[in-house]
UniProtKB/TrEMBL annotation:
GO annotation terms (biological process): regulation of DNA-templated transcription
Descriptive protein name: LuxR family transcriptional regulator
GO molecular function: DNA binding
Family matches, as InterPro entries: HATPase_C_sf, Sig_transdc_resp-reg_C-effctor, Tscrpt_reg_LuxR_C, WH-like_DNA-bd_sf
Amino acid sequence: MYSLANPRSIELLDALQTVVESSLLDIAGGFSALLEPFIGHSALVIFTEDCTGRPQKKAGDPAIIDEVTLVELDAVRHSLTLAPSDPWGRRAVIGGTDRPVTAWTASTGALLVLTDPQLTPAGAADPEATLGFVGRLWQLVATSIRQQVAAATPAYLLDSRAASAERAKLIADLTDAHSTTLESLLAVLRSRTVSAEAARQTATDLAASAMVSLRAVSDRDRSLAEEPVVEAFARLRDDLRPLVRFGDLDVQLVEPPANGRALPGEVAHAGRAIVRGAVLALVEQTGVSRVRVQWDCDGANLLIQIRDDGAGALSADSPGVGPLTARVAALGGTFDVQATAGWGSELTVSLPLDAPLAPLAPATEWGLSPREQGVLALVSSGARNKAIAAELSISENTVKFHVANLLRKVGASTRAELASLAR
């Protein structure tokens, strides 16, 4: 189809280079345009767990890309493992509608889905070759996505943190609203005043099943948004392995406590990127043969400490250190460099696990008590009643009492509206 002397081959390589160099927010649109001459499609959807803030990257028909869910994409990926053959005859529910799809998974685990695929004349000449060709292109693009996430630029971290906070709040509100509705339905159906036993049993089973499904959606989203601290550190070990395997550097890794709090995805990615950058900055100095990396978590922050055995000449102005401070600042963290001549350098980083709360309206405007202010801050962060009760060491009934008072004082009708007004 292509040869080194063919101008179309050069154009394709140029187009692919443009795609892999695109930002994470633009990569779906560029890849869609690249594939269009081979496979026409109504929408292109990428699902990658490397991007915790925005695991979906989409381009095409808004009616599809605005409605597609993680559950639907998980189902497509699962179907590929069960029946990898017959890619052109595949169907799936995407955006709430059953439609033809073609899909690929990359070695990174990322999923590519094209909806309503149609082979163009160029692609129809050899459908099997076209399928393999697009799969190889997708492998390169998926690898680029992973590398971009690993770099964790400040702009990406800010966007990812905002998206994570927004998604967490939406999931919390959705779960709370639907759980309340279903619990009320179950209470009515279980009432002794209802005599239709068969209807009650059937409705009870359906409602219970719906609650399980809803919780599954929430759990799936949480699995994307967080990484257990031990797993996050294990990925760091893999990232640093080439330095150990192909160099003379002795990298000592101190494992974090196994029971530490799970890390938000953007914090885990940033932590690994900061350690990689710091290690590279340290080994650029003369005489460094050993680096010690330690992670810990105090429940509110990821704590990183990196030491070397060099001459102790590192400073905040040293090459490679400046970009690290920008990444830390993007997450509201702290960064410090201490160097002792003849004894080595030490970098300490603290990354907050939670995004800072948006400033609340003055308490005097609504006449809130100190306790109500504390409850309002936690409601605005997306915390549910049980979590608020645990945080403030009060009962859930007391939390409900305070939330009811807040709704009345602020003039809101729902928790979501209360949080929005507070921000």
